[in-house]
Amino acid sequence: MSNPLQQTIEALAKEKGIEPAVIISAIEDAVLTASRKDYRTSENLRTRFNQETGQVELFAVKQIVAHVTNPAIEIDLTEAQQLYGDEAEVDMEIEFPKATDVLGRIAAQTAKQVIFQKVREAERENIFTEYNQRLGEVVNGTVKRFENCDMLVEVGRIEAVVPRKDQSRAESYNPGERLRAVIKGVSRSAKGPQIVLSRTDPALLVKLFEQEVPEIYDGTVQIRGAVREAGDRAKVAVHSRERDVDPVGACVGMKGTRVQAIIRELRGEKIDIVEWSEDQVAFVTNALSPAKVQRVSIVDDRERVMEVIVEDRQLSLAIGKKGQNVRLAAKLTGWRIDIKSEEEKRKEVEAQFEELEAGGASDNVAEEGEPAQPEEAAAETVADAEGEQ
Questions:
Q1: Residues 14-20: contacts with CB within 8 Å, 24+ apart?
Q2: What spatial distance separates the first Cα and last Cα of the chain, rounded to whole Å?
Q3: Which of 155, 365, 382, 388 has minimal CB crowding within 10 Å?
Q4: What DSSP designation does 1 have?
Q5: What are the φ and ψ backbone dihedral angles of 162, each rounded to 5 degrees?
Q6: Residue 90 in contact with residue 75, Cβ under 8 Å?
Q7: For residues 200 and 278, what is the distance between their CA atoms, to the nearest angstrom?
Q8: Distance in angstroms (rounded) separating the CA atoms of residues 114 and 47
C-alpha cells in the first residue's frame, strides 16, 4: 500500500484482527453519514474509496427517467444523452462528483465516531465468532481482578469472566496469577462478547486428560464419561479400543505421574479412574470404586434402578462422605443405586420370611374355623325342633 491512509488501514486491520475491507467500508459509511449531515440535501449520495489516491469520493446519484418528477434524484433521458451520449438509457444511474473538502469540523467528528463504531462492531463480531467455535477448549489466562465475586481473566487480547458458581471452592487466586480454564459459553452484550470460563466443568477434566495422556489424545483410549464435584472428587470412565492397552493404567501412568499432574492442576481434587463396560452391572460395580461390591441386581430396568450389596465394613466407603461416592457413581452410570450392607439385606430377607409365615398361619386359622359353621346351624335346628314339641 502506497498512501498513508491505506497504510493506516492495513495496520489497524492487523491490530484488531479484521479485514481491511471492513475498515474501508466503515470509512465510506462515515463519510456518507457526515456528508448527509453537512449538505442537508435530499440527493441520493454515494461514497467510494479510491485505493490509488487514498481518498473517499462522494457522488450524487441520479436515475435516468423519461419524465422527471424529482430533480434531486432523477435526470431526463435527453439531458443524460447530451452528457454521456447515446449509451444513456432509462433506469441507468449516473454519478455526479461532489466535494468532500468542504465538510465541516462537526461532520469530521461524526465520521470519526462512525468509523470507531463500525470497527468496534466488526471486532466484537470476530471475537464472538472465534470463541463460539472454541467451546469446550482449554485456554490459559491471567487473573486481572475480582468483581462481585466473579473473577475477570485476561485471555490474549480479550477479557473473560469466571463466575462464582464456576470457581472451585478448593482454589483461590490472586491478581497476576495464571490459570487454565475451559470455555463454557459466549454471550452477546452491550459491552461486547462475554466469554465465560469455568474451573468446575467436567470438560476441563476431560481436556486435562487429553493433554496428559497420549493414548487419549491419539484415540487409543476413550473417555466415555466424566463427573465432578469440584474441589472434592471426580470420576472418569475410560475404555480402550485395543485389547493390549489397559485404559486405567494408561491414565494413571507410571507411579501415578499422569493423574498426579492433573490432581495438582485441580488443587488436590481426588480422581477415581474406572473402566467403562457395556455390561451395566459391571459398569456400576466399577463406578463404585474404591469400594468392593459383593453383588449387584437390577431392581427396575425401565426406571434404571439397581440394588448393590456390600460388606458391612465397606458400606461407609461405598456411600462416601455425605453420599458423594454413590452420588457420583449414579451420575456417571445413569442408574439410581440403592446400596445396602449384608446385615441390612439379611434383616430385610428375614422380615419378608416372617411376613410370609404370618400370612400362612392366618390363612390356616381361617380354614379351621370354617367347618364350625354347619355344626352351629345343626344345633340351632335341634333346639328349634325341641321347642315346637
A1: 16/119, 16/122, 16/123, 16/126, 17/123, 17/126, 17/157, 18/119, 18/122, 18/123, 18/126
A2: 142
A3: 388
A4: -
A5: -110, 100
A6: no
A7: 28
A8: 14
* Cα(324)–Cα(336) distance, integer angstroms: 14
Is residue 270 within 8 Å of residue 232, measured between CB atoms?
A: yes
Rounded Cα distance between 332 and 273, Å, is 11
Q: Strands, E, within the chain: which ranges?
A: 44-50, 55-65, 74-76, 93-98, 138-147, 150-155, 158-162, 178-187, 194-198, 221-229, 233-240, 270-275, 293-300, 305-310, 336-341
- Distance separating alpha carbons of residues 162 and 169, to the nearest angstrom: 13
Order the strands of the 221-229 sheet from edge to edge.
221-229, 233-240, 270-275
Cα separations in angstroms, 76 against 36, 63, 83, 207, 245: 24, 9, 11, 69, 84
* DSSP classification of residue 322: G
Q: Which of 336, 331, 338, 334 is nearest to 229 (CA)?
A: 331
- Return mean pLDDT, the chain: 85
Question: From CA 387, how far away is CA 389, in angstroms rounded?
Answer: 5
Record the pTM. 0.69
Nearest to 55 by CA among 4, 114, 15: 4
